[in-house]
Automatic annotation (TrEMBL), chain A:
<feature type="transmembrane region" description="Helical">
    <location>
        <begin position="273"/>
        <end position="296"/>
    </location>
</feature>
<keyword id="KW-1133">Transmembrane helix</keyword>
<feature type="transmembrane region" description="Helical">
    <location>
        <begin position="99"/>
        <end position="122"/>
    </location>
</feature>
<dbReference type="Pfam" id="PF00528">
    <property type="entry name" value="BPD_transp_1"/>
</dbReference>
<dbReference type="InterPro" id="IPR000515">
    <property type="entry name" value="MetI-like"/>
</dbReference>
<dbReference type="InterPro" id="IPR045621">
    <property type="entry name" value="BPD_transp_1_N"/>
</dbReference>
<feature type="transmembrane region" description="Helical">
    <location>
        <begin position="227"/>
        <end position="253"/>
    </location>
</feature>
From TrEMBL, chain B:
<feature type="domain" description="ABC transmembrane type-1">
    <location>
        <begin position="95"/>
        <end position="284"/>
    </location>
</feature>
<protein>
    <submittedName>
        <fullName>Peptide/nickel transport system permease protein</fullName>
    </submittedName>
</protein>
<dbReference type="InterPro" id="IPR025966">
    <property type="entry name" value="OppC_N"/>
</dbReference>
<comment type="similarity">
    <text>Belongs to the binding-protein-dependent transport system permease family.</text>
</comment>
<keyword id="KW-1003">Cell membrane</keyword>
<keyword id="KW-1133">Transmembrane helix</keyword>
<feature type="transmembrane region" description="Helical">
    <location>
        <begin position="261"/>
        <end position="284"/>
    </location>
</feature>
UniProtKB/TrEMBL annotation, chain C:
<dbReference type="Pfam" id="PF00496">
    <property type="entry name" value="SBP_bac_5"/>
</dbReference>
<dbReference type="InterPro" id="IPR030678">
    <property type="entry name" value="Peptide/Ni-bd"/>
</dbReference>
<keyword id="KW-0813">Transport</keyword>
<feature type="signal peptide">
    <location>
        <begin position="1"/>
        <end position="29"/>
    </location>
</feature>
<dbReference type="InterPro" id="IPR039424">
    <property type="entry name" value="SBP_5"/>
</dbReference>
<dbReference type="InterPro" id="IPR000914">
    <property type="entry name" value="SBP_5_dom"/>
</dbReference>
<protein>
    <submittedName>
        <fullName>Peptide/nickel transport system substrate-binding protein</fullName>
    </submittedName>
</protein>
Length: 305, 296, 507
């Protein structure tokens, strides 16, 4: 494995980032003039114009865009309209909460999927198997915010087991992570189940059995290894989707992640924040992809060439 | 929401008798088909089935519980909402909008995906590269964020919503169609046809299109579920269907603040959404299993 | 660029610790936790236009004078200014307290007041840049005296020194920080609580100011959380996660009262809910008859009773009685006459087969029951023969649509946080409603030059009547605010909806 390929992947991302920035810029520009949101309604027309000039909003869109790109290349990512401060730290300070929630969601999904998937495969076509698929698919079929609110009402208000919202300690993570994890758990359970089933008919299982090794153990060992690569693919795709896509869950639980930030930024047309958030999410996605590739090679030596 | 991770088989055309046989051997598939068929029937016959005008509001009847609970009334089978409108009738009519959005958005996004995928696969070279970069860019932008921005531009309501969802959902279809076209192009009989001087368009219609159809159908079916969920998420964020149109996502979103006090307002539309998406997933799963030779 | 600066993580982890501490019951007796519906927008008092942001900032910064509605009428009471006087409503002299220290230990002086006013006037990027536009000059002849001159007689001067943008900032600390960005990272005020941390979209944390001039503040720590989802906010209150939760739906009142340890409080507020009407000739609402029909078709009593569960009062006007210059007749004499409304529609040429089409826009969740009120209004309008389309928008979108004049015939507006009825003159009626009236404009001009309070009040009352008679705005109701309050605290709510931690007691 040479070091060229991650670098290449990085280089390939430059045009993608560029297209993303242009698309986002044009779309946000089309949503209209943010100046309306920046002044109180009793401001005079002169005040309004002064503000528009101060922010450079009187320039045509291509001038604004060129100006914006030039600034980025010189390391200046612009100022958030909403917060009136540099936009980059506004975005960066959300990353810990977002990564925590993403990891939490994935862990919940794995914790659910691993035992249930194995159980379903070993007892295939039994009633429990059917019940497990029904429940996991149900988790996927329910709107996220509904699941979130129900979890709050059941575990927070009724049973009083966990804190309702906010980004406190580990306990605060439980409900939002469950909300995000249930949908993904369904897919993962199905994957693990079918990977195990696929292995069960293979020759080496019979060989192993002949040697007196317990069948379940063999199935688990080979089946789980079989499931590893597709599960990894699926998990990394989900991780990427959650980085900026957990905005509904974040709103329900007042979780201060990138999703909520981005929703608010979109509402007030906070261009600099939207752009940087998309950049940051894209870069994190790329990192996850590279890490996934590295893991593939670690797991399966054949992929090293 | 999830881009398809596993390659979908570029298999044969759908053969109806085999399909029916396979369906009967798969209980979950039957259940899915039944659910979807029921929802479609409800949507089509909402006018005949609904006992009351879904828009008729009566403030003095607001938040009335379902008929079987104390304080309920048989005239309002599932109770009433915060405006005193009949929930049962609203759910029946909501089926119409929710399914219409699902089907229309998927049809539109599938068409976009089909067109771009075919063009990319057939043309190759720079055109292909450009489309692939566009797809990469789309995958890099978080879907909900993109939907929100497009919704801000397009406004809210039925048609904008369809456009918004379609604009973000075509990527999966485009990738699959492109991959299918590329592999079909290399097949012997297509190469032979080309060598014999078949025109690209004819080639496309006669050989390539039918071959990509099966995976395309699977993706599109699964997408209907995604779209119905996306509609409810957009309703939650304030960009959903506008009154007087009724959709389940809108009802669920509006009813969520009564979940603790008048649970039925949000619960019944929530069940309707869940049931429908469940049906679509089961149906889609079965279609995928059936059309996937590896699992045969 | 240090992408993973340790401070981000430390902030996140620190907040985790604090949240755990606040969960710890007994310790929480010294911590006041308030749940608002949205995050604060800024720590800069001059750079936001948002009630809940100001509600947090009043704990950090102080005004020159306080607005006091506790007697049912607006009074100004001393705060940083001990007293004030004017003879001509042009030249004003404020005598300041001499025992006030900034959070950093510096002494508060008249130079700080001068700085605060001039900074707002000069920085055009500030949202409240026009707050002090009538002030021509500010002088600080000595440390405890401020002399202010307005461009013309202005009976509203004291009103400028309360509300958004009125918090006084420290000149020396601001200049030493080298700009607003640096200063507001760790802002300094004179208030009873010191800024500790702002975790955006989550919480603002304040701590007791031991050197406050008003005595020892009541709470060790004040946490102001942002919980946009109503169900979540209510759930936090029920489970003891917060002590005060704002904007509780009326349906949840019984639930809060039945729950052990919580209760609901309701109180009058400085806000009115009205339909604003676009009267351009290109719209059906350009016809005064149809506007009157809309006014008559709405059963305000039923809306208050059914939608607000009685927590409000019907009105045709725009101000509650505690606001100077409110027009009393508009809060009585409310007619509900659907038959007359139908007749008016007929007179205007709509015979039932042809129905006038009206679009009503409303935010969702911004004001108590906003969407439900508009849906009910829509129903009443349908009843008399209008064809109604209701447009529900998220608040921020709604706000930008308003500023861009992107609405249809009617839109719901909950004007609030005003301190005087002359705010009726503030909006640009031509731009927002496509409406102009010489008599109204004359009143506006005169009110701006009014020499006495009584004169100004008379002028704004006449103006309200014109606006109500012409139905440029159709007043609907004066809502009450509903908060959920934990039994750990004593609180009754404030007319201006500011939650000053010092107003919150312990039983």
């Amino acid at each position: 494995m040479t070091k060229r390929s991650p670098l290449r992947a990085l280089l390939q991302f430059v045009p993608v980032l560029y297209i993303v920035s242009l698309v986002v810029f044009v779309l946000v520009y089309l949503t209209g003039d943010p100046s309306a949101l920046l002044i109180p309604e009793d401001a005079s027309e002169a005040d309004r114009l002064a503000l528009i000039t101060a922010w450079g909003l009187d320039q045509p869109w291509y001038t604004q865009y060129l100006h914006y790109m030039a600034n980025i290349l010189s390391g200046d990512f612009g100022v958030s309209y909403r917060y009136g401060t540099d936009a980059l730290p506004v975005v960066l300070e959300r990353i810990p909460a977002t990564l925590t929630l993403t990891a939490g969601g994935l862990v919940v999904a794995i914790l659910i999927a691993l035992p249930t998937g194995i159980f379903a495969a070993l007892r295939r076509n039994s009633l429990p198997d059917f019940a497990i698929s029904a429940v996991t698919v149900l988790g996927k079929a329910m709107p996220n915010f509904w699941v979130g609110i129900m979890l709050i009402l059941i575990f927070g208000v009724w049973l009083r087991l966990v804190p309702v919202s906010g980004s406190g300690g580990f306990a605060h993570l439980i409900l939002p992570a469950m909300t995000l994890g249930t949908g993904f758990a369904a897919e993962l359970t199905k994957l693990i189940r079918s990977s195990l089933l696929e292995v069960m008919g293979q020759d080496y299982i019979r060989t192993a059995r002949a040697k007196g090794v317990p069948e379940t153990l063999v199935v688990l060992r080979h089946g789980l290894r079989n499931a590893l690569i597709p599960a990894l693919t699926m998990t990394s795709l989900h991780a990427i989707a959650l980085l900026g896509g957990a905005l509904v869950t974040e709103t329900v639980f007042s979780w201060p992640g990138l999703g909520q930030l981005v929703v608010q930024a979109v509402y007030v047309k906070d261009m600099a924040v939207i752009q940087i958030a998309v950049f940051v999410i894209t870069i994190m996605a790329l990192t996850i992809n590279l890490a996934t590739d590295a893991l593939y090679r670690l797991i399966d030596p054949r992929l090293r060439h | 929401m999830t881009p398809l991770s596993l390659p979908i088989p570029r298999e044969t055309r759908i053969v109806i008798p085999r399909l029916a046989q396979s369906l009967l051997s798969n209980k979950a598939g039957v259940a899915g088909l039944l659910i979807v068929a029921m929802m479609v029937a409800v949507a089509l016959a909402a006018d005949q089935l609904a006992p009351l005008d879904p828009l008729r509001r009566n403030l003095s009847l607001k938040l009335m519980p379902p008929a079987w609970l104390e304080g309920g009334d048989l005239r309002h089978l599932l109770g009433t909402d915060s405006q005193g409108r009949d929930l049962f009738s609203r759910i029946l009519f909501g089926a119409r909008t929710s399914l219409a959005v699902g089907v229309a958005a998927v049809a539109l996004s599938s068409l976009i995906g089909l067109a771009l995928g075919l063009v990319a696969g057939m043309a190759g070279g720079k055109v292909d590269l450009l489309i692939m970069r566009l797809i990469d860019a789309m995958l890099a932008i978080p879907t909900m964020l993109f939907m929100l921005v497009v919704a801000l531009v397009a406004g809210s309501g039925l048609l904008p919503l369809v456009v918004v969802i379609a604009a973000t959902n075509w990527v999966g279809a485009a990738r699959i169609v492109r991959a299918d076209v590329l592999s079909v192009k290399e097949m012997d009989y297509v190469a032979a046809a080309r060598a014999l001087g078949a025109r690209p368009l004819g080639l496309l219609l006669r050989h390539i299109l039918p071959n990509t159809l099966s995976s395309f159908v699977v993706v599109s079916t699964m997408n209907v579920g995604t779209v119905i969920l996306a509609e409810s998420a957009l309703s939650f964020l304030g960009f959903g269907i506008q009154p007087p149109d009724i959709s389940w996502g809108q009802m669920l979103s509006e009813g969520r603040q009564y979940l603790a006090t008048s649970w039925w307002v949000a619960t019944f539309p929530g069940i309707a959404i869940t049931l429908t998406v469940l049906g679509v997933i089961l149906l889609g799963d079965w279609l995928r299993d059936h059309l996937d030779p590896r699992l045969d | 660029m240090p992408l993973f600066r340790p401070t981000y993580w430390s902030g996140f982890i620190l907040s985790a610790g604090l949240a755990l501490a606040s969960m710890a019951g007994a310790a929480a007796a010294q911590t006041l936790t308030i749940a608002q519906g949205n995050d604060i927008l800024s720590l800069d008092p001059a750079n936001h236009g948002n009630n809940s942001t100001e509600s947090a900032l009043v704990n950090i910064y102080e005004y020159l004078v306080d607005k006091d509605f506790s007697q049912g009428q607006l009074r100004f009471t001393p705060r940083l200014a001990r007293s004030w006087s004017t003879e001509d409503n042009v030249r004003w002299t404020f005598k300041l307290r001499d025992d006030v220290l900034w959070h950093n230990g510096d002494r508060f002086t008249a130079a700080d007041v001068k700085f605060t006013i001039e900074r707002a006037q000069q920085d055009k990027k500030l949202i409240n840049a026009s707050k002090f536009r009538r002030i021509k000059s500010v002088e600080a002849p000595d440390d405890t005296t401020v002399v202010i001159e307005t461009d013309r007689p202005d009976t509203l001067l004291l009103h400028y020194f309360v509300g958004n943008g009125a918090g006084i900032l420290p000149k020396a600390a601001f200049e030493k920080a080298g700009g607003k960005e640096e200063f507001f990272k760790k802002p300094v005020g004179t208030g009873p609580y010191v800024f500790e941390q702002w975790i955006k979209s989550d919480q603002v944390i304040l701590s007791r100011n031991p050197r406050w001039w008003g005595g020892t503040p009541k709470w060790d720590k004040v946490v102001i959380r942002s919980i946009p989802e109503t169900t979540t906010r209510v759930a936090e209150l029920l489970t003891g996660g917060v002590d005060i939760a704002v904007n509780i739906p009326p349906e949840d009142i019984a639930r809060l009262n039945d729950n052990k340890g919580t209760r609901a409080i309701t109180f009058d507020i400085a806000r009115n809910i009205a339909l604003h009407v676009r009267t351009g000739k290109d719209r059906v609402t350009g016809d005064p008859k149809l506007r009157e029909a809309i006014d008559l078709a709405i059963d305000r009593d039923a809306i208050v009773k059914q939608v607000l569960e009685g927590h409000g009062k019907p009105t045709r006007g725009f101000f509650p009685p505690a606001i100077p210059g409110f027009a009393p007749d508009l809060n009585t004499n409310i007619r509900f006459d659907p038959e007359r409304a139908k007749a008016l529609l007929k007179e205007a040429g709509f015979d039932g087969r042809k129905r006038p089409a009206i679009k009503i826009s409303t935010p969702s969740g911004r004001y108590v029951k906003d969407r439900e009120i508009v849906e009910a209004v829509g129903g009443y309008l349908e009843d008399v023969g209008f064809r109604v389309q209701v447009e529900v928008l998220d608040w921020t979108v709604y706000n930008s649509r308003l500023a861009g004049d992107g609405f249809g015939e009617l839109y719901l507006w909950g004007m609030g946080s005003y301190t005087d009825a002359s705010s009726i003159f503030v909006q640009d009626f031509k731009r927002h409603y496509d409406w102009s009236d010489p008599a109204f404009e004359d009143l506006a001009r005169k009110a701006g030059n009014a020499k006495t309070e009584a004169e100004r009040i008379a002028l704004s009352q006449q103006a309200q009547k014109i606006v109500a008679e012409q139905r440029v705005r159709i007043g609907l109701l004066l809502p009450q605010s509903i908060y959920g309050v934990s039994d750990r605290v004593v609180y009754d709510g404030r007319f201006d909806e500011m939650i000053a931690a010092e107003d919150v007691g312990r039983p």
